[in-house]
Amino acid sequence: MRVVLGVAGGIAAYKACSLLRLLTEAGHDVTVVPTAAALNFVGAPTWSALSGKPVSTDVWTNVHEVPHVRLGQEADLVVVAPATADLLAKAATGQADDLLTNVLLTARCPVVMAPAMHTEMWDHPATQANVATLSERGVHVVPPASGRLTGKDSGPGRLPEPEELYAVCERELARAASASGTAAASAGVTARTGANAADKRSAQGRGDLSGRRVVVSAGGTREPLDPVRYLGNRSSGKQGHALAAAAAARGAQVTLVTSAAADLPDVDVVTIETALQLRDAMHAAAADADVVVMAAAVADFRPATYAPSKIKKTHEVGPDGAEDDSAPTIALVRNPDILAELVESRGASPAPIIVGFAAETGDENGSVLDHGRAKLERKGCDVLVVNEVGEGKTFGADDNTVTVLRRGSAESVEVGPATKAAVSDAVWDVVVTLL
């Protein structure tokens, strides 16, 4: 497949060398198109040596071959890594002042952009607006990872690892090949004609959830014991939030029901705290949904009674007013099984597609995957995402490792270790096949 690797002028440009090597070793024909600023970080000889092709930043080199048009027209995939704030702004506003921005305007294939910049630049409303614009046009924007940045800075804005970006590229190329084959079979023509360029982009780009309504739950529930204490778990909500963001980027109308703070563009957020609140919100939102994803870590139990005032360390017992400093006994009751209820309320209807999550630990009765397969059979959902949890595993981390199971299929999809954004895309890839 023909891949254009765009490289913008950021310190993370060095990671693109590894991505280039992964793509070429997989047999892809890769043309590197850096910006002039990118050559300050990695020189043209390096790109030429790794790709086996000459490198240029302007539209005047080999002008007789019209590279500013030809490269975009002939590409099966354009990936930009890193995509700086400047490059995102130019792409969103349609500027074309160098070879890379011209390629982005002429490309009619899937486009992947991997932003990398300091946290303040990534969080700026202008950058977020540009990302939203690009996503609406079908560009797959890979959210940056969180971690060490230039100097002593740390936070969101780090370029994902080359292996993760390579996996995204391979998925986009596979989708492109599938969509092209389908279009050719039904229309009897190649998929490169200008007449169906927009349809092709929608089918194989990030618009594969366009027109779909998606509901995602996220975060751990908090079951109040008294005004200051609660029973809860370690879930941060990051995986559920990543699933919601990925669905929105792929064109879906998304409702996120979460217990964690969330500020996601193009996502309707419903904030809850307890399992009972989550239950009500999910049933209401799922009524007209195409896909429901239960990624929340719902507490299995809640206190049977709520103390209206703080439970004291010592408390009076008996008629004589004697004090007891022993720990009180907390009676628990079982919370509803929201996933099972959603499956039951769907009945025989094929909609919505229901995705469950199984946060498991292995024990003497079976492995994590054993417990996951048993849960898939027991719950009756269409897809189950199984991951191993525990201290230092999954909860609160930026990375995840999961196995995606489908009801009625012995096959599974292994994902990771990868960022939760990459895991989200892998889950949606499976869901799209069911849609």
From TrEMBL:
<dbReference type="InterPro" id="IPR005252">
    <property type="entry name" value="CoaBC"/>
</dbReference>
<comment type="similarity">
    <text>In the C-terminal section; belongs to the PPC synthetase family.</text>
</comment>
<comment type="function">
    <text>Catalyzes two sequential steps in the biosynthesis of coenzyme A. In the first step cysteine is conjugated to 4'-phosphopantothenate to form 4-phosphopantothenoylcysteine. In the second step the latter compound is decarboxylated to form 4'-phosphopantotheine.</text>
</comment>
<feature type="region of interest" description="Phosphopantothenate--cysteine ligase">
    <location>
        <begin position="214"/>
        <end position="435"/>
    </location>
</feature>
<keyword id="KW-0288">FMN</keyword>
<dbReference type="GO" id="GO:0004633">
    <property type="term" value="F:phosphopantothenoylcysteine decarboxylase activity"/>
</dbReference>
<dbReference type="Pfam" id="PF02441">
    <property type="entry name" value="Flavoprotein"/>
</dbReference>
<dbReference type="Pfam" id="PF04127">
    <property type="entry name" value="DFP"/>
</dbReference>
<dbReference type="InterPro" id="IPR007085">
    <property type="entry name" value="DNA/pantothenate-metab_flavo_C"/>
</dbReference>
<dbReference type="GO" id="GO:0010181">
    <property type="term" value="F:FMN binding"/>
</dbReference>
<feature type="binding site">
    <location>
        <position position="375"/>
    </location>
    <ligand>
        <name>CTP</name>
    </ligand>
</feature>
<keyword id="KW-0511">Multifunctional enzyme</keyword>
<feature type="compositionally biased region" description="Low complexity">
    <location>
        <begin position="180"/>
        <end position="195"/>
    </location>
</feature>
<keyword id="KW-0479">Metal-binding</keyword>
<keyword id="KW-0285">Flavoprotein</keyword>
<keyword id="KW-0456">Lyase</keyword>
<feature type="binding site">
    <location>
        <begin position="336"/>
        <end position="339"/>
    </location>
    <ligand>
        <name>CTP</name>
    </ligand>
</feature>
<feature type="binding site">
    <location>
        <position position="357"/>
    </location>
    <ligand>
        <name>CTP</name>
    </ligand>
</feature>
<feature type="binding site">
    <location>
        <position position="379"/>
    </location>
    <ligand>
        <name>CTP</name>
    </ligand>
</feature>
<dbReference type="InterPro" id="IPR003382">
    <property type="entry name" value="Flavoprotein"/>
</dbReference>
<dbReference type="GO" id="GO:0046872">
    <property type="term" value="F:metal ion binding"/>
</dbReference>
<keyword id="KW-0210">Decarboxylase</keyword>
<protein>
    <recommendedName>
        <fullName>Coenzyme A biosynthesis bifunctional protein CoaBC</fullName>
        <ecNumber>4.1.1.36</ecNumber>
        <ecNumber>6.3.2.5</ecNumber>
    </recommendedName>
</protein>
<comment type="similarity">
    <text>In the N-terminal section; belongs to the HFCD (homo-oligomeric flavin containing Cys decarboxylase) superfamily.</text>
</comment>
<feature type="domain" description="Flavoprotein">
    <location>
        <begin position="1"/>
        <end position="167"/>
    </location>
</feature>
<dbReference type="GO" id="GO:0004632">
    <property type="term" value="F:phosphopantothenate--cysteine ligase activity"/>
</dbReference>
<keyword id="KW-0436">Ligase</keyword>
<dbReference type="GO" id="GO:0015941">
    <property type="term" value="P:pantothenate catabolic process"/>
</dbReference>
<keyword id="KW-0460">Magnesium</keyword>
<dbReference type="GO" id="GO:0071513">
    <property type="term" value="C:phosphopantothenoylcysteine decarboxylase complex"/>
</dbReference>
<comment type="pathway">
    <text>Cofactor biosynthesis; coenzyme A biosynthesis; CoA from (R)-pantothenate: step 3/5.</text>
</comment>
<feature type="region of interest" description="Phosphopantothenoylcysteine decarboxylase">
    <location>
        <begin position="1"/>
        <end position="213"/>
    </location>
</feature>
<feature type="domain" description="DNA/pantothenate metabolism flavoprotein C-terminal">
    <location>
        <begin position="209"/>
        <end position="433"/>
    </location>
</feature>
<dbReference type="GO" id="GO:0015937">
    <property type="term" value="P:coenzyme A biosynthetic process"/>
</dbReference>
<dbReference type="InterPro" id="IPR036551">
    <property type="entry name" value="Flavin_trans-like"/>
</dbReference>
<dbReference type="InterPro" id="IPR035929">
    <property type="entry name" value="CoaB-like_sf"/>
</dbReference>
<feature type="binding site">
    <location>
        <position position="310"/>
    </location>
    <ligand>
        <name>CTP</name>
    </ligand>
</feature>
<comment type="pathway">
    <text>Cofactor biosynthesis; coenzyme A biosynthesis; CoA from (R)-pantothenate: step 2/5.</text>
</comment>
<feature type="binding site">
    <location>
        <position position="300"/>
    </location>
    <ligand>
        <name>CTP</name>
    </ligand>
</feature>
<feature type="region of interest" description="Disordered">
    <location>
        <begin position="180"/>
        <end position="210"/>
    </location>
</feature>
